[in-house]
Structures are given as structure tokens and as C-alpha cells.
Amino acid sequence: MKKTHVLVLIVLSVALSAVGQDINYSDLFSPVHGYHTQELNDPFTRLIADVKSGKRELDNSSSKAFIASMLEHLDVPASSQLLIFSRTSLQTRRISGSNPRAVYFNENVYVGYIPGGSVEIISLDPELGGIFHIFDRPKNDAKPVFERGGGLCVDCHSVAKTRRVPGLSTRSVIPGANWGKLVAFSDNQMGHQIPLSERFGGWHVTGDSGITDHKGNLTGQRVGGKIVTEVIEPGTEFDWSAYLTETSDILPHLILEHQAGFMNLVLEATYRARTYQHIGKGEIKPEHVAVLHGLADELVRYLLFADEAKFPAGGIRVDPQYREDFLADRKEASNGISLKDLDLETRIFKHPCSYLIHSDVFQATSDLFKQRVYQVLGEALSIEKPNPDFAYLSVTEKEAIRGILRETLSDLPGGW
Description:
Blueprint: H1 3-19, H2 43-53, H3 63-74, E1 82-84, E2 101-105, E3 109-113, E4 119-125, E5 129-135, H4 151-157, E6 172-175, E7 181-185, E8 218-223, E9 226-231, H5 250-279, H6 286-303, H7 320-327, H8 360-363, H9 367-380, H10 395-408
Antiparallel strand pairs: 1-2, 2-3, 3-4, 4-5, 6-7, 8-9
Helix pairs in contact: 1-6, 5-6, 6-9
């Protein structure tokens, strides 16, 4: 473990001990958060309002058409499609190797679709995190009934893995004969730091990605106390025509994992700051500031991909359609470069600072937390006083990242 990690953990441990056990930042029923009562501000809630008012329509001619029209309204590319054949979600009885669950996503909305099953939505409210819906496609000419997910959704999406707030969760498992979990990998982690050799279990990975030791496309059985695996090639047990595209590409896998780790961390800080401010009657006590500063330090390492999993020699090959769709909304600096620019030879991004610094979730977080992130980020990118924890960033890379951030963020502190 790096020295910075140790210091962050010590700060968090001491600060959490100081504030006592009576503070529960993750109590969603608390009026401090209003998770179940506050007016929502997430993309899917806005779409629901538009559909109910007649401003927008969803194509109900078939299951595929319904999902395709929903994704179009939500600006979610069909090329983001990922297929999961392990029974690791709410609709376990409907998922199998012959009927995988599809996931489509952008930065703010995550759509689950199972042929013959219910539609699942996680839509991110910047202040509350994941807002969950599960509903059936309407039959014939009936109007859709959008039901907000109940306790089961929240129970699985506000656990240790999601940092106890309503967040995003992915699992990597080897499924057995009944498509349930035989063994899980990195079960309490989320993010781009997880080794590629432990990822994608229970998910399909299509194409020649260049990664040879991931856990995707595998099923297993116990033989003599050991798990023996075999490959289940995508499309051999199900019909691709049931889905919007014939891919479950490596790039959306990598992007989904990165986004989940980022969003969960920022949402924890948002929930904690709101709780601490309530406890302090508008002020945040020093011991609580220490906790938020520890989270900010952790986020800066994440933003700058300090612990990113190693890529295979020769890099990674990706689906060109999703690559094009992912880059469609890139925020350019005046010299034409962007935080979304891909590298894929030795790491995900050419300029290793997460594009999610522009996200609604980060921009809506506590100003105290955000300004600490900016401060520590500026120190990490310093050329005059280089921080050895970020020595992997060259002078050229630091200059490029600082230039992009200066031109694309409006709330950087003075002198940054």
C-alpha cells in the first residue's frame, strides 16, 4: 500500500472515531437527505414528466423498440451495450446464458433490459445519487406505468460496495450451472484500480480486446474442491436479434467500472457533508472537515488514475462505434484536446484526469469538498513543487491537464 493511502486511511479512521457512532450519514430515511421525499432532479424523472405531459413518446411496438426509443430520449448510446449472464441482479430467475441481461449507460443514466423481463433504471440525481425504477413495458396501447424501485433496489445499491449511499454496483463472478455465483472477485471494490484479471466475470466480452486473462465469458463447476471453468462464447446460447447490437465491448466495460468508482466516492462526500452541516447547524466541525478532506485526497488519486490497473502489452482494441459515441460530447480546450481523449495503449486516457470532474454529480457536491479537491489536484499537478506520489505524470501531461481544466471549469480557485 502506498504511503498516501496509509495517511488517508489514518485520517479517516481518527476522524470517524472522533465523531462517534451516533452519526449515520447513510440514513436515507433521515429528513436531512429527503431521499424519499425531496423533489427529484434526474434525467429519467424528467423523461417521465415529458411522457406524461405528451411532450415525448416512447415507441411501444416491441420490446426492442421501447428500449431503443427510451435510450434515444435519454441520450444513451446503444453501442454502450453490455451483456450479463450471471444471476447477480433483482430479476435473477429471468437471467441465464440463453437470456442475458443488457445494460446501457451514459454518465447519468443506467438502463437494464432483459428480454421478457422488466426494465430497470438507475438515474443519478446530483444531490441524492441513484434513483431506482423498475417497471414492465406497457402492453398494446396502454400508457407506461413508471414505478420507483422500493427497498430491494436500495438494499443492494447502498451497501459497503457503494460506500453506503445510493450508488452504482457491478460484480465479477464465475457463475455455475444455475448461473448463480460460484466465486466472486474484488467483491467490495469498485473502480479502475481492480486488476483486469479479476474483472468481467459473469459478463460477456466481445471482440479481440487484447486482454487474455479476464474472467469474462466463463462458467464453472466444482471438481475435486477446485473450480474448473469453460468459455461460453457470446451469441452461442442466445439470439443476438433480441438485443440492440451485437456487442459487449471492452471499452464500455472499462468506462462503466471507472464511472461507478467515481460516482460512489463523490456521493459519499455529498451525503457526509450534508449530514455534518446539519449536525453543526450550518457549520462543519473540524473533525468532520478532516473526514471530507480525506475523501477529497482519495478522489484526487482516483481522478488522476494513480492506481489504474495495468494494461496488457500491445494495448487494448475496442469497438469503433462506442468509441465514436463516447467521444461525441467531449469538452475541448482551445488547442483541441479533451479529458475524454483515449490512449488505450498503456492506459485508458491520453490525459489521465477523469472527464467526470465535469459531471453534474461532482459539480453539485459540497463546496468545501470540491474546493479541497481543486486544491489537492493543483498540488498534484504542480511542476514547480512536484509531488512524488504523482511522479508517473510527466511535465507535458501535467501541463495538458491543467490547460484543459483551466479552460473547461469555471469555479477553480484564484491562482490555480
